[in-house]
Design brief:
The protein starts with 14 loop residues before the first helix and ends with a helix. Helix content is 41%, strand content 15%. It is an alpha/beta fold. α2 links the parallel β1 and β2. It has 2 domains: 89 residues, 3-Layer(aba) Sandwich (Rossmann fold), CATH 3.40.50; 123 residues, NAD(P)-binding Rossmann-like Domain (Rossmann fold, 3-Layer(aba) Sandwich).
Length: 289
């Protein structure tokens, strides 16, 4: 695993430090929950196939569960697992009262319909926030279980006491995992939001106007310094694996001198995403009791 340097530049968002604070709160909450109810919150993860990054992400989530005192249950399925077999497993996990949260690691193999899989996760156990009911609640401003990465971005803004009200936000990437929910959560906070994607003409003309720029495309080094407004806040959510190292969508060294704040890759949004997952699992356990 990549060694992460210590964060000393105040412009760099230390996602590990923010995540540690979230996890400390969750750990206290878990201890209180156990005292009150006599049971420990539990998260079940489902991993299909041998995709190396996905295997690492699941492992990191289980390590986080151990740190905060949440039970983690690992379900590893072969690449050739059928759509019906995954749905059957989710149905079983939905019925198990001792399991409070269910996470299906994405991406799934191409022969499986991810959207339909998410529809089968009970909304009360949907700690990743992808069930259409939870997505719909977010759309009308009733945020409960929302996708963890966008919520991590919101938490980072709160940590730095940045109010997005009235700010220009540009989101590059329109996935259901990051782009769309990030845009909606910032719209809920009265930001002016634009979403760009692979079909956007003249990307630079949009990104150059952003007070807050969120990039989630998986294209290494897509965003250069001349595409970023002076004094902008930049969240790099993209991940590209190359030669056993991970890179972001932003040319970090080139962009850093221009920004007010920037999240690095790795060590930025990733740790916060996992910490929010822990928070959601505790929240699910409380709701179900």
């Amino acid at each position: 695993m990549q060694e992460l340097p210590e964060v000393t530049d105040p412009r760099i968002i230390d996602g590990r430090k923010i995540a540690q604070g979230i996890e400390a709160d969750v750990k206290r909450g878990v201890e209180e929950f156990i005292k009150e109810h006599g049971i420990r919150p539990a998260l079940a993860t489902v991993l299909v196939g041998e995709h190396p990054p996905s295997k690492l992400y699941v492992k990191l989530k289980h390590w986080a569960c151990k740190r905060v005192g949440i039970i983690s249950e690992d379900h590893k399925l072969p690449q050739e697992t059928t759509h019906e077999e995954i749905i059957e497993l989710i149905a079983t996990l939905n019925k198990r009262h001792e399991i409070h949260g269910i996470l299906v690691q994405l991406p799934l193999p191409g022969h499986i319909d991810e959207r339909e899989v998410m529809m089968h996760i009970s909304p009360e156990k949907d700690v990743d926030g992808f069930n259409p009911l939870n997505m719909g609640k977010m759309l009308i401003g009733r945020e409960g279980f929302v996708p963890c990465t966008p919520k991590g971005i919101i938490r980072a803004l709160e940590e730095f006491k940045i109010e997005p009200h009235g700010m220009e936000v540009v989101v590059v990437g329109h996935s259901n995992v990051v782009g769309k929910p990030a845009a909606m959560m910032l719209l809920n906070r009265n930001a002016t939001v634009r979403i760009c994607h692979v079909y956007t003409r003249d990307l630079k003309s949009h990104t150059g106007e952003a007070d807050i720029l969120i990039v989630a495309t998986g294209v290494r080094g897509l965003i250069k310094a001349d595409m970023v407004k002076e004094g902008a806040i930049v969240f790099d959510v993209g991940i590209t694996w190359q030669d056993n190292k991970v890179y972001g969508d932003v040319d970090f060294d080139e962009v850093l001198p221009r920004v007010k704040l920037i999240s690095p890759v790795p060590g930025g949004v990733g740790p916060m995403t996992i910490a929010i997952l822990m928070e959601h699992t505790l929240m699910a356990a409380r709701m179900q009791r």
